[in-house]
Specification:
Layout: H1 5-22, E1 33-34, E2 42-48, E3 58-63, E4 68-73, E5 85-88, E6 91-101, E7 107-115, E8 120-126, E9 137-138, E10 151-158, E11 165-171, E12 177-188, E13 191-202, E14 209-215, E15 220-225, E16 229-234, E17 245-247, E18 256-263, E19 269-275, E20 280-285, E21 291-295, E22 305-308, E23 320-325, E24 329-334, H2 336-339
Antiparallel strand pairs: 1-24, 2-3, 3-4, 4-5, 6-7, 7-8, 8-9, 10-11, 11-12, 12-13, 14-15, 15-16, 16-17, 18-19, 19-20, 20-21, 22-23, 23-24
Length: 340
C-alpha cells in the first residue's frame, strides 16, 4: 500500500498519540462526588467558600451554548436552582473574588464570567446572584476582526496594594502581543463599570488562549498558550508587561488547558494544569514552577478546573479540587488525594 505525504503524517501522528496515551498508565483517582448533569457542555468551575459555614460553599460551573448557564452546585454535586444563572449566550470561563466594595456601606463577593456570543463579560454578586453590570461589559472593543472579539478565558485579580479589582480576559483568537486585556472594575452608585487598563501577553499563534489563573498573593497571572507553554506575568499593571516565564510545555501531549492554583498560608502550594488529550493533570511547584508529578483523575477532555485548600466538610477535609468532565458534569476530589 502506498501512502501520500499527508496520509503518512496523519498515520504517524496517530501512532504517536496512541503510544503516548498507552505509556501513561498512572494510578486512577476516582472522584469523591460527580455532579448532576448540565444541559449542554460544561467547561470551567469556580469555588466560593461560605464565610461562616464552609459546608454551605458553592461550586459554580459554566455550561456553554446559546442557551447556556452558570450552574451552582452544592458540595454533594446537586444543582442549586435559585443560585443558577440561566439564559446566558455561551458562557465560557468563570472566576470569583471576595470583598468588592460596592458602596460606602456594602461589600460583596463577586462572580465574573465571559459571555462569548455577546462579546462581553458579566458580573454578579454572591450569594444573592444579582447582576452588577447593567447587562454586561463589552470587551476587545478596539478590535476590527470579529473572531478577536470573542471572549473565552477570564480571571479575577484583587490587588494587595490598593484592593483594586481587575478582570483579565482572553479571547478565541488574537495577536502575538497584547492577547490579554485587563479591566479595572470600579463601583459607581451601586453598579459597576469596567475600565481597560492594559493589553499584555504573548501568544505563540499555535492554537488559542483560554485558561487564565491569578495568584494574587504572589502577584502573578498564569495562562495556557495551549500548544506551547504556561506563560507567567505580573498581575499588577504597574509592574509592566514583560514575560516572567514560559514553562511546562514539554510535559503535555497536546492542549495545555485549565489552571488551578493551590495556595497555602506558608507561601507554598501547587499549580495544577489539565493535560487535556492525555486525560491527566500535571502539577508544578507554586514557588519555583518546577514539575512535581502527573495524576490521572479519570476525567475526559478536561477544560477548566479550580481548587481551594481549606477544609469544607467531612468529604473534603483537606480542600476541594474540581475538574470539568466531558460528560456534562464536574468531578469533585478531596485535595490530598491529588498531592499526597
Amino acid at each position: 500500500m502506498t501512502l501520500n505525504i499527508k496520509s503518512s503524517i496523519l498515520f504517524l501522528g496517530s501512532l504517536a498519540l496512541l503510544s503516548c496515551n498507552s505509556g501513561s498508565k498512572l494510578p486512577e483517582i476516582t472522584p469523591d462526588i460527580i455532579t448532576e448533569k448540565s444541559l449542554n457542555d460544561t467547561d470551567d468551575p469556580a469555588i466560593w467558600i461560605h464565610p461562616t459555614d464552609a459546608s454551605k460553599s458553592i461550586v459554580f460551573g459554566t455550561d456553554k451554548n446559546t442557551n447556556g448557564a452558570i450552574y451552582a452546585y452544592d458540595l454533594q454535586g446537586k444543582i442549586i436552582e435559585d443560585k443558577t444563572i440561566r439564559n446566558i449566550q455561551r458562557p465560557n470561563n468563570v472566576d470569583l473574588e471576595y470583598g468588592f466594595q460596592l458602596n460606602d456601606s456594602v461589600t460583596v463577593d463577586v462572580l465574573v464570567f465571559t459571555e462569548r456570543e455577546k462579546q462581553q463579560i458579566r458580573l454578579f454578586s454572591i450569594p444573592d446572584m444579582k447582576p452588577l453590570d447593567n447587562g454586561g461589559f463589552s470587551v476587545f472593543e478596539d478590535e476590527k476582526i470579529i473572531e478577536n472579539k470573542l471572549p473565552m478565558g477570564v480571571a479575577m485579580y484583587k490587588s494587595p496594594i490598593d484592593n483594586s479589582f481587575y478582570a483579565i480576559v482572553g479571547r478565541k483568537t488574537g495577536p502575538t502581543e497584547g492577547y490579554l486585556y485587563q479591566y479595572k472594575l470600579v463601583s459607581e452608585k451601586a453598579t459597576v463599570k469596567a475600565e481597560l487598563v492594559r493589553k499584555f501577553g504573548q501568544f505563540s499563534g499555535e492554537k488559542e488562549i483560554e485558561a487564565i489563573a491569578v495568584d494574587a498573593e504572589m502577584g502573578y497571572v498564569y495562562y495556557s498558550d495551549e500548544g506551547h507553554c504556561i506563560r507567567k506575568y505580573y498581575a499588577e499593571p504597574s509592574k509592566g508587561n514583560e514575560e516572567i516565564a514560559c514553562f511546562g510545555g514539554e510535559y503535555f501531549l497536546e492542549d495545555i488547558e485549565g489552571i488551578a492554583i493551590a495556595k497555602y498560608n506558608d507561601g507554598k502550594g501547587y499549580i495544577i494544569v489539565s493535560d487535556q488529550q492525555k486525560g491527566q493533570f500535571n502539577i508544578f511547584d507554586r514557588t519555583t514552577n518546577a514539575f512535581v508529578k502527573s495524576v490521572n483523575l479519570t476525567t475526559v477532555e478536561t477544560d477548566g478546573c479550580d481548587v481551594v485548600t481549606v477544609p469544607l466538610n467531612d468529604t473534603f477535609k483537606s480542600g476541594l479540587f474540581v475538574a470539568m468532565n466531558e460528560e456534562k458534569d464536574f468531578y469533585f476530589y478531596d485535595l490530598d488525594r491529588l498531592i499526597k
